[in-house]
Write a structure and sequence with these properties.
Elements: H1 5-10, H2 12-16, H3 18-22, E1 38-41, E2 52-55, E3 61-65, E4 70-75, E5 81-86, E6 96-102, E7 108-114, E8 122-128, E9 134-141, E10 144-150, E11 156-174, E12 180-196, E13 202-207, E14 214-221, E15 224-232, E16 241-243, E17 249-252, E18 256-259, E19 265-266, E20 281-286, E21 293-297, E22 305-310, E23 318-323, E24 328-333, E25 339-343, E26 348-351, E27 357-361, E28 377-378, E29 383-387, E30 396-400, E31 406-407, E32 416-417, E33 422-423, E34 426-429, E35 438-439, E36 442-443, E37 453-458, E38 464-469, E39 473-478, E40 483-488, E41 493-499, E42 504-509, E43 513-518, E44 524-531, E45 536-540, E46 546-548, E47 556-560, E48 569-572, H4 577-580, H5 585-592, H6 595-610, H7 618-633, E49 671-676, E50 680-683, E51 687-695, E52 704-711, E53 715-719, E54 727-733, E55 739-747, E56 750-751, E57 755-761, E58 774-781, H8 795-807, E59 816-823, H9 829-842, E60 848-854, E61 857-859, E62 865-867, H10 877-880, E63 882-883, H11 884-893, E64 897-903, H12 923-929, E65 936-940, E66 950-951, E67 956-957, H13 958-970, ...
Parallel strand pairs: 50-57, 58-59, 58-60, 60-64, 64-65
Antiparallel strand pairs: 1-47, 2-3, 3-4, 4-5, 6-7, 7-8, 8-9, 10-11, 11-12, 12-13, 13-14, 14-15, 16-17, 17-18, 18-19, 20-21, 21-22, 22-23, 24-25, 25-26, 26-27, 28-32, 29-30, 30-31, 33-34, 34-35, 35-36, 37-38, 38-39, 39-40, 41-42, 42-43, 43-44, 44-45, 45-46, 47-48, 49-51, 51-54, 52-53, 52-55, ...
Helix pairs in contact: 5-6, 6-7, 8-13, 9-11, 13-14
Pfam families: Peptidase_C14, WD40
Signal peptide: 1-23
Biased composition (Basic and acidic residues): 613-623
């Protein structure tokens, strides 16, 4: 241990300026922020590398950040995502976060990486964890900050840079004035770990690809630091390192123990002759109380790894658990023995004190890294195959590029072929997972020495090929190794295929994107984001027009920068459904081999079906043409090679493959800031006082505020709000229990993204809430239509059987069940609309409402989805159908919990050949109902226009059969005598797919604002 006095002198200035630091002084920066919306992914979980995690001092929350540009805060016990932040961005290539560190007081989060919007060069940004305010930035770095670390008292922040294999930097800043107090330039390679101990001493480690890793030790001297030791490890892996609990030594990379004062090599105590290096550890941590050692193993594949818990440093006796992540990048051990970890592919997970899985979240995107041949192409070149997660029943799934949907490959009558990687005249060598790829003996073009080729395909007749790399580049290269064009895809390009007759390229990247690009010039035609395991997809054109699968509209959207002191606002695609949803745009674009022409054709088709007038292309189409022309002109990659010495040269960005136009900045829904108490609160009385700031375009004031209180006993909607102003106070009554308060603001452009405040009730316990618990059931099914051509087999019976089952819940979970069942001749338009309207007068805040619809549904020429009652007439849909808009308005207004079960995609041939403009695809209607602001839980029998399957031997349609089985007890996986809505969702999805052999795929859009709750008691 070193003397504490020099460290005190170093922090003197910081202590004098402490008041300024606590006030959160902000730097004037941000002149480089984008004035236009920037397109981003918004998956529920990370979609790219996550290298670090942090845990709050109370150990109730876990913080992660990654290359997907998000900062996420999770509940450590349950894994629930509590908050997600986007930093303000310069453009679509900005915002990749390499590192994070939480200050010891838990108030300030430092994040670092490829952050360009805060001045010249790259940046470290300091964020208020409570409200997302950006307190400070350190910009101007030529290298990418790779790791950051706070000193134990928060007075210093150390930053390590990514020098790849060349010169690097280590900087130390005092956090009161942000003055740089130390700078070590004599470092080679990527600085992957820095950590302070209590007396101010800190270490740094480098992790280098081709040279030995090193460890550096620094001691405070006066107002700066001096290096006191430097140690080469004789190996190339020092990815993670940490102080032991008593800070007398540190351990590096799971293989070395070094003295804390001089980096002397220490023996592992009583290790039995087997050094830890032989075990293959990737990360090691000691328990907070000391003694126990936790280690992660690097698996051979991304979905295969192990964690061990050793009784002591002898590493003899241990507990072991197999985990679904083979590339653990960081872990933390909490008081009490819980372990949280993150992995290279973005998984965030927890292991309980009993050393059993507690929770895990990972993006269900296709993992093609190391297996590009798994993206096969169908003989008609309209389908591709993708791998499914290892725990799925099937090993792969097929996706239709032209008419987006998922299918089992066995249900697609096609032959399949892998990418062509060799033919006479074009010979690829060492291209997969190698730094040394060649074509016909010529090196493949690269940005730097550590860029690997991951995927490739050769044209069957032209002397050219495509290859994707670890730096996110897709390149077209001649047989002589000359670059023809290159595109930046923002994530590792893991698989490529050629649609030769169409002149198109399909490229998959590790973030879940699939892009269709023109072979001739590299211009993007269409981009998809896919979650095959969840059967979710979105397809977005460069103009921002899109199509979407059920429950997928919120997986992407645009962020809008406010200023450099605030997190950016995020607007999902669902906020622009009325303006930018364009059915048919995918097929039109691919058939035209041109994204702009595809949009124009789809707009014309929609106008012809509704008004008969050709649409005005307008400014958006003009902007699409300009962007496409600019991308076509950028036909080659401009780059600078790394220099032999000095600063690392940064590669100039090549033309991005995907940059869809966003909404106009003056045509946005409102946004809500919670000024106090923040997004979490503790109250001792059943009342919450909120201070809000509403932001909306100047010409479009907020027209309404809706609040909704959700707890374990009730859901109350439409609470009164105070008059709208720039800043206002809202008082919300709560039940005497933990609850969530959801706030939604509306202007003429639509509804805001709901803001949720989670409230912990710490007051006196109240007596059980009085009043009956009522289940309101409305079940409607039509088989016997007035028009005999529309008749179905089991829709009416499905409604009766569902109603009979739920009526059996009377006297159990529900004191009473008020059921209305309308089938066949009783299910006329007037009767159905009256039954829906009656719900408004009946439902209370403690009630639950089930609405079940079975029969035909159809979109009219304007895209309006209608349920067909018994007298329906396709020639008079508006007069004889029941609009889903009406259904949404009524159900969204109900207090209590509301569930809708939709089975309206029955045999299309019963309706005959539909005239132009009509379709059975219910996707838009289901997405509208399931939007977060409505809080309606929707169970849909199938995706899109996929038909619902019936079989007389089942006695019901597949969907209803699965619902009835699940509610009777089959979905009670834990055998607790009750079924929750999430259990029912899981059971129905699996059971229907099993019954129909993959021909029907039910979907339930996930509402993160609605906690799981019990639907029914079993055995009734």
């Amino acid at each position: 241990m070193c003397d504490w006095k020099p460290f005190r002198r170093l922090l003197a200035v910081a202590l004098v300026c402490a008041a300024q630091a606590l006030a959160g002084a902000s730097t004037a920066y941000g002149q480089r922020l984008s004035a236009e919306p920037v397109f981003v992914l918004n998956a529920p979980f990370h979609t790219g590398f996550v290298l670090h995690l942090a845990v709050t001092p109370d150990q109730r929350q876990v913080i992660t950040a990654g290359l997907d540009k998000t900062i996420r805060i999770w509940d450590a016990l349950t894994g629930q995502l509590l908050r997600r932040y986007f930093l303000p961005l310069r453009d679509a290539g900005d915002g990749r976060i390499n590192a994070l560190s939480l200050s010891p007081d838990g108030e300030r989060l430092a994040v670092a990486g490829g952050l360009f919007g805060f001045g010249e060069g790259k940046a470290v940004v300091v964020v208020s964890l409570a409200d997302g305010r950006i307190l400070h930035s350190l910009s101007g770095f030529k290298q990418s900050p790779r790791t950051v670390s706070w000193s134990k008292n928060g007075g210093l922040l150390a930053v390590g840079m990514d020098g790849r294999e060349g010169p690097s930097r280590i900087h130390v800043f005092e956090t009161a004035t942000w003055k740089r107090v130390f700078d070590d330039r004599d470092v080679i390679g990527r600085v992957d770990a820095i950590e302070f101990r209590g007396d101010g001493v800190f270490f740094a480690t480098t992790n280098n690809g081709r040279i030995d890793s090193e460890v550096f030790l620094y001691r405070p001297v006066e107002t700066s630091y001096t290096r006191v030791a430097r140690k080469s490890l004789g190996r190339k892996s020092a990815f993670r390192a940490a102080w032991a609990t008593d800070e007398t030594h540190l351990y590096v990379g799971g293989h070395s123990r070094l003295g804390g004062d001089d980096l002397s090599v220490l023996a592992w105590p009583d290790s039995g002759g087997r050094p830890p290096a032989a075990e293959g550890f990737s990360v090691m941590r000691e328990s907070p109380e000391g003694g126990r050692v936790y280690a992660a193993f690097r698996g051979r594949t991304a979905d295969s790894g192990k964690l061990r818990r050793y009784g002591d440093w002898s590493l003899r006796a241990y507990d072991e658990i197999v985990v679904a992540d083979g590339r653990v990048t960081d872990l933390a051990v909490l008081r009490g023995g819980q372990v949280v970890y993150v992995s290279q592919d973005g998984a965030v997970a927890a292991i309980g004190p009993d050393f059993k899985p507690l929770w895990r979240h990972a993006a269900p995107t296709p993992w093609l890294r190391g297996a590009p041949q798994r993206m096969k192409l169908s003989g008609d070149e309209r389908w591709i195959t993708l791998p499914l997660p290892s725990d799925a029943k099937d090993s792969e799934i097929a996706f239709n590029l032209y008419e987006p949907r998922f299918e089992r490959p066995s249900n697609v009558a096609q032959t399949w072929r892998e990418p062509l990687t060799a033919r006479p005249g074009v010979q690829l060598r060492h291209w997969q997972g190698s730094f040394r790829g060649t074509v016909n003996g010529n090196d493949l073009p690269r940005i730097h020495g550590r860029e690997m080729a991951l995927s490739a395909t050769v044209h069957s007749s032209e002397p050219a090929l495509l290859y994707g790399s670890s730096s996110g580049r897709l390149r077209k290269v001649s047989a002589e190794g000359k670059l023809i064009w290159a595109r930046a895809l923002a994530a590792e390009v893991t698989a490529v295929q050629l649609l030769e007759p169409a002149g198109l390229v399909v490229a998959a990247s590790e973030d879940g994107f699939l892009r269709v690009i023109r072979w001739a010039d590299g211009v993007t035609v269409m981009s998809y984001y896919l979650q095959p395991g969840e059967r979710k997809w979105i397809a977005v054109s460069n103009g921002g027009y899109y199509e979407s699968g059920v429950g997928a509209e919120d997986l992407a959207g645009w962020i809008v920068n406010r200023d450099a002191s605030q997190m950016a606002d995020f607007y999902p695609l669902s906020r622009f459904r009325e303006r930018l949803l364009l059915p048919g745009v995918v097929n039109s674009a691919l058939e035209a081999r041109d994204g702009t022409q595809g949009v124009e054709r789809a707009l014309e088709a929609r106008a012809a079906a509704t008004t008969g007038k050709r649409p005005d292309s307008g400014a958006r189409i003009d902007a699409m043409r300009q962007a496409q022309s600019a991308q076509r002109a950028e036909s080659t990659l401009t780059e600078r090679r790394e220099t032999a010495g000095g600063d690392e040269a940064e590669a100039v960005d090549d033309a991005p493959a995907f940059q869809p136009l966003g909404p106009a900045a003056d045509q946005l829904p409102p946004a809500i800031d919670v000024i106090s108490p923040g997004l979490t609160a503790t109250v001792s009385e059943p009342r919450l006082t909120l201070k809000l700031r509403l932001r909306t375009p100047a010409a479009d004031p907020v027209t309404a505020i809706t609040t909704r209180v959700m707890s374990s006993t009730q859901v109350t909607r439409g609470l009164p709000a105070t008059p709208v102003g720039a800043e206002q106070t809202l008082i919300v009554d709560l039940p005497p229990e933990d609850a969530m308060v959801q706030i939604v603001a509306t202007n003429r452009w639509g509804s805001s993204v709901p803001v949720v405040v989670r409230v912990r009730y710490a007051g006196k316990s109240a007596a059980a809430a009085q009043g009956r618990r009522v289940l309101h059931l409305l079940a409607i099914g039509v088989s016997d239509y007035d028009n005999p051509r529309y008749r179905l087999g089991l829709a009416a019976k499905d409604a009766r059987d569902f109603g009979r089952l739920l009526e059996g819940q009377r006297g159990g979970l529900y004191d009473t069940v008020e059921a209305t069942v309308l089938t066949d001749k009783a299910a006329g338009k007037a009767a159905v609309e009256k039954a829906l309207a009656d719900l408004r007068d009946k439902v209370g805040p403690r009630d639950t409402t089930f609405v079940f619809l079975a029969g035909h549904g159809i979109n009219d020429e304007a895209g309006e989805y209608l349920y067909l009652p018994k007298e329906a007439d396709l020639s008079r849909l508006r007069d004889t159908g029941i609009s889903f808009r009406l259904l949404r308005e009524i159900l969204a207004s109900l207090p209590g919990r509301t569930l809708l079960f939709v089975d309206t995609c029955h045999a299309g041939n019963a309706l005959g050949n539909l005239r132009a403009g009509l379709s059975r695809d219910n996707t838009s209607a289901i997405n509208g109902l399931a939007s977060a602001e409505n809080n309606i839980i929707v169970f849909a029998s199938s995706t899109g226009a996929q038909e619902s399957v019936e079989d007389a031997t089942w006695g019901n349609g597949a969907f209803t059969k699965a619902l009835v089985e699940g509610l009777r007890g089959s979905a009670d996986f834990n055998k607790r005598g009750r079924v929750t809505y999430k259990q029912l969702d899981a059971y129905v999805a699996d059971r229907v797919e099993e019954l129909t052999r993959g021909r029907q795929t039910p979907v339930t859009p996930v509402l993160v604002t609605v906690p799981d709750f019990v639907l029914a008691e079993t055995g009734r």
